[in-house]
Amino acid sequence: MNRLIIVSNRVTTPSGKGEETVGGLAMALAAALREYSGLWFGWSGKTVTEFNGHMNLQRVEGVTTATIDLEEADLSEYYNGYANKTLWPLFHYRQDLTAYDRSFDEGYQRVNRRFAETLRPLIEPDDLVWIHDYHLIPLAFELRKLGVKNRIGFFLHIPWPAHQLITTLPRHKELVEALFAYDLVGFQTPEYQQAFEEYVLNEADGVITADGLLRAFGRPLRTGAFPIGIDAKEFAELASSPRAQRTYDVMAAHTAFRQMIVGVDRLDYSKGMEERFLGFERLLSDHPDLRREVLFLQIAPLSRESVEAYQEIRARLDALSGRINGEYADIDWNPVRYVNRNYRRDELAGVYRAAKVALVTPSRDGMNLVAKEFVAAQNPNDPGVLVLSRFAGAANQLHEALIVNPNSPEEIAEALNRALSMPLAERIERWRALFDNVQREDVTAWRDAFVNALAATRSGDHARSAE
Ligand code: GDG
């Protein structure tokens, strides 16, 4: 078996014991590395005054990690700049929040070069290299310049936007050309894959060859849709762990005779939380009979706090939750519980299980793992109902959820009302189909599909076609 080298912006190695607070991506990658030998390369999370290329090699819980420190300027231009002020908002259809700044672009290129130069000596001839997410699009291009001939794959965790939108980015063609330095580029859904193809066919004189490869910039590229999943079995077990049970009991005691609606998201403007709050408010105003019967718990740990747009959405959510509570709360009832702290994964599993409805309504989302975790955590005999945005990648798989337009508070309110009164038989039927999908298309299936597709690409194509 080939060694696998995983590269992502941040290296975080979860212990697998359920108490960590890291996101879905980190969990998925650590799971991949426990089975393949190899290593995980990326930024340490620390800064230095001057970049020195020093690498820190460690072995944690069966996973070898190699990390480098970056400079403050790298962080502000590459991470907080090009990645999170340019690509993230644009790829989530927030052109209004997208900053175009030449220094961001330069910092992005510089950090990708630094990654390439420090990673280069670690790569052995038969290694498969798997690079993750929008922070590192140019990395293969930089590695090729240093003579790397290995098979290199890229997986985009966020949406690939529609053709017209990406052309608003200065130097969009260079960004797309950099993707042709890979052997395989994977997307979350066929829709994103098609949007990428459409760009290449229209803007870069691309063609699709008889063997299904995309050819442009003088090079062939395999693309594919690889929907990411969760470790469904592990999550279902977490949901019946003692800690989850305790959390469940606490929730049940405090929500006695009330139905709980839950939302769990990093505090990010792409998650549609404002419209979701308005949707809940609408439910309360349209259905006075439900007022004391329901409560909405939104868990939203803070994220990217140094980026202004995140401070603004936080302020708006603070105001909105305060307003709804001010309007509807009573001396012994508060409709909204809005919490900005992190919970352990097993506690989260208990919260999901105690909820009657999950509201997962991002305005755009590559996949959304919360939707899948909620499904995995349910009690099969009395499952809750998933309300899901049509603009989450997960909607492409989770058809039996109540699918809504996240921009419409009215639709959200209607779906909530339907979910809260759904008969047990229908809840069970829907949940079974959802759980079947979450179990089948899990994180292992995702990883194996991608790695096998990468291993099957003809290595050396790049060496030949670049000559
Ligand atoms: C990106 C893409 C894609 C949240 N609060 C707590 C907590 N979380 C965990 C959730 C879930 C993860 O964070 C969030 O994952 P999502 O998939 O929902 O969203 P992003 O962070 O935006 O992830 C997304 C994903 O990459 C993978 O490809 O699905 O579309 O945007 O696992 O449970 N975890 C803990 N405490 C919390 O308070 N422990």
TrEMBL record:
<keyword id="KW-0328">Glycosyltransferase</keyword>
<dbReference type="GO" id="GO:0003825">
    <property type="term" value="F:alpha,alpha-trehalose-phosphate synthase (UDP-forming) activity"/>
</dbReference>
<dbReference type="InterPro" id="IPR012766">
    <property type="entry name" value="Trehalose_OtsA"/>
</dbReference>
<dbReference type="Pfam" id="PF00982">
    <property type="entry name" value="Glyco_transf_20"/>
</dbReference>
<comment type="subunit">
    <text>Homotetramer.</text>
</comment>
<comment type="pathway">
    <text>Glycan biosynthesis; trehalose biosynthesis.</text>
</comment>
<protein>
    <recommendedName>
        <fullName>Trehalose-6-phosphate synthase</fullName>
        <ecNumber>2.4.1.15</ecNumber>
    </recommendedName>
</protein>
<comment type="function">
    <text>Probably involved in the osmoprotection via the biosynthesis of trehalose. Catalyzes the transfer of glucose from UDP-alpha-D-glucose (UDP-Glc) to D-glucose 6-phosphate (Glc-6-P) to form trehalose-6-phosphate. Acts with retention of the anomeric configuration of the UDP-sugar donor.</text>
</comment>
<keyword id="KW-0808">Transferase</keyword>
<comment type="similarity">
    <text>Belongs to the glycosyltransferase 20 family.</text>
</comment>
<dbReference type="InterPro" id="IPR001830">
    <property type="entry name" value="Glyco_trans_20"/>
</dbReference>
